[in-house]
Amino acid sequence: MTLLAVEGVTKTFGGLRALDNVSLAVDKGSVVGLMGANGAGKTTLFNLIAGNARPDSGNITFRNDAITGNKPERICRMGIARTFQIVRPFRSLTVRENVMIGARFGQNARGSRLTEVCRESIELAGLATMADKPAAALTLSGQKRLEVARALATGPDLLLLDEVMAGLTPAEVMSMLETLTSLRRNLGITLLVIEHVMRALMDLSDSIVVLHHGQVIASGTPDEIDRAPAVRAFYLGLES
Ligand SMILES: Nc1ncnc2c1ncn2[C@@H]1O[C@H](COP(=O)(O)OP(=O)(O)OP(=O)(O)O)[C@@H](O)[C@H]1O
Ligand SMILES: [Mg+2]
Q1: Ligand 1 atom closest to residue 14's alpha carbon, by position in its atom list
Q2: pLDDT at 240
Q3: Is the CB of 54 under 6 A from ligand 1?
Q4: Which pLDDT score is estimated for 105?
Q5: Half-sphere exposure in the Cβ direction for 32 (13 Å, CA)
Q6: CA 108 to CA 56: how far, in whole Å?
Q7: Quick one: pLDDT at residue 217?
């Protein structure tokens, strides 16, 4: 079943076509990877899905409901959460307080249930030992996990992850992969994942969509993408 459908979406900034007639579908329970060079339009696509910006044209549906141009809090309450590529936690607040603030943006929880949801989200994101430390004490990897915890606490069915493995050591990437795999396995959360760490993306994803200058140039299984001539030429800079 298609959970998210992006159909013919275009977004321009002045003369720049950041996204040009982009379509993709994300099946419920799947992991879809989104790759492409710097400036390909990946974060812009997340901004449009999550309601942080409006497309010039095209449609976005979630569970067959049109969400195009809806406000971020409305989209979040429907069950879509995102992480931000540039992490900006409230540094003097604790991890738990940061997650509590994020959770209030989301679906349902109030009162003691909210506290419980935040505790679970922090644990699922692998930050339990840091819960009462200030966010300023987190490493980059910890800050990326805080983004994941904050998003989880809103109770998403679809989680949009914007480069949560960027800048991490190989060991931290492995550990983050385990965390993300467990979200899917244990909670059934559907993932749309932007990542430059290609091996990690290939391991995690059921299917991959490749953006190049705002256009989808390839989509398919990780194996198909690995072999696709367009990807090898454009993205990897290799001849096919
Ligand atoms: N608000 C904006 N105003 C003007 N131009 C923008 C804006 N947001 C993005 N762009 C431009 O749109 C293009 C796509 O940007 P985007 O951030 O979506 O790329 P990306 O694929 O996420 O890249 P990266 O891998 O570097 O994060 C870039 O050329 C960028 O400069
Ligand atoms: Mg980006």
Answers
A1: 4
A2: 42
A3: no
A4: 74
A5: 24
A6: 31
A7: 94
- Catalogue all structural domains in the chain, each as residue range(s) with its CATH number: 2-87+156-234 (3.40.50.300)
* Two tokens, residue 77: 């309450």
pLDDT digits over 52-67, tens only?
A: 999 999 999 999 999 9
Which of 14-28, 100-114, 136-150 is predicted with the least confidence, judged by mean pLDDT?
A: 100-114
Q: How open is the CA angle 32-221-165, to the nearest 5 degrees?
A: 45
**Separation of alpha carbons 239 and 61, rounded Å:** 37
Amino acid at 117: V
Amino acid sitting at position 109? A
- Integer-rounded Cα Rg, in Å, for the chain is 17
Nearest CA to ligand 1 atom 31: 39
**pLDDT, position 236:** 63
| Shortest-distance Cα residue to atom 11 of ligand 1 | 18
The answer to whether the CB of 12 is under 6 A from ligand 1 is no
Q: Which ligand is nearest to the CA of 41?
A: 1
Cβ of 40 closer than 6 Å to ligand 1, yes or no, is: yes
Average pLDDT of the chain? 93
pLDDT at 109: 61
Q: Whose CA is nearest to atom 5 of ligand 1?
A: 13
Does 13 contact ligand 1 (Cβ within 6 A)? yes
Burial of 115 (0-12, 13-18, 19+ CB in 10 A): middle
Ligand nearest to the CA of 211: 1
Tokens of 53: 């910006």
| Paired tokens of 171 | 């060991």
- At position 138, the amino acid (one-letter code) is L
Nearest CA to ligand 1 atom 28: 39
| Beta pairing class for 207-212 and 31-35 | parallel
